[in-house]
Amino acid sequence: MTPSRILVIYAHPAPRRSRANKPLARALASLPGVAMHDLYWHYPDFDIDVRIEQAAVEAAELIVFQFPVQWYATPSLLKEWLDVVLEMGWAYGPGGTALRGKHLMVLATTGGRAHSYSQAGTHGYTFDMFLLPLQRTAALCGMQWEPPHVLHDADDASPEAIDAHIAQVRAALQPWLPDDADFPA
Ligand SMILES: Cc1cc2nc3c(=O)[nH]c(=O)nc-3n(C[C@H](O)[C@H](O)[C@H](O)COP(=O)(O)O)c2cc1C
């Protein structure tokens, strides 16, 4: 069996109510070469097993964070994951080279519409600004930041819009997928 080059860290606090992330997570999970890791399923009490998480990250080339945006940030369990897994001496600092050369890609969904994420819009800033903490974390750990894929207006997105988003994500993952990977319908 080919080892998974892509590790998807999925963080949705209410996955059964999800419209947008659920079909995306399902599609990603069925791709060859993708290891799907559902944080809220594994750690409902937030008691993250740091060694297991670090081993999973070490085995991957592309780390994907998939989450619905909550209060302009990641859901809290993904923030906790960052806080406890990215240890000094492993992820950064002296001897902290485990993530160096790996790639990080964000797959986020928002309730806000695309135009509301602008200087003149409700949220006052472009969406990129809210990803800066993750982008800087990647840089500090020597990771390459991949262009994020964001589905805005996710609560009201049509099935066609969700399908188009899934297809766009699949295309972005192509460089890390096995040559013969087929995307499920
Ligand atoms: C507690 C909470 C906070 C949220 N904060 C934001 C926010 O800051 N910006 C935004 O655009 N949407 C926000 N939303 C909307 C979610 O991002 C949206 O419902 C989700 O991305 C839809 O994806 P899903 O169908 O997979 O759940 C929030 C939702 C919840 C429940």
From TrEMBL:
<dbReference type="Pfam" id="PF02525">
    <property type="entry name" value="Flavodoxin_2"/>
</dbReference>
<dbReference type="InterPro" id="IPR046980">
    <property type="entry name" value="KefG/KefF"/>
</dbReference>
<protein>
    <submittedName>
        <fullName>Glutathione-regulated potassium-efflux system ancillary protein KefF</fullName>
        <ecNumber>1.6.5.2</ecNumber>
    </submittedName>
</protein>
<dbReference type="InterPro" id="IPR029039">
    <property type="entry name" value="Flavoprotein-like_sf"/>
</dbReference>
<dbReference type="GO" id="GO:0003955">
    <property type="term" value="F:NAD(P)H dehydrogenase (quinone) activity"/>
</dbReference>
<keyword id="KW-0560">Oxidoreductase</keyword>
<dbReference type="InterPro" id="IPR003680">
    <property type="entry name" value="Flavodoxin_fold"/>
</dbReference>
<feature type="domain" description="Flavodoxin-like fold">
    <location>
        <begin position="5"/>
        <end position="171"/>
    </location>
</feature>
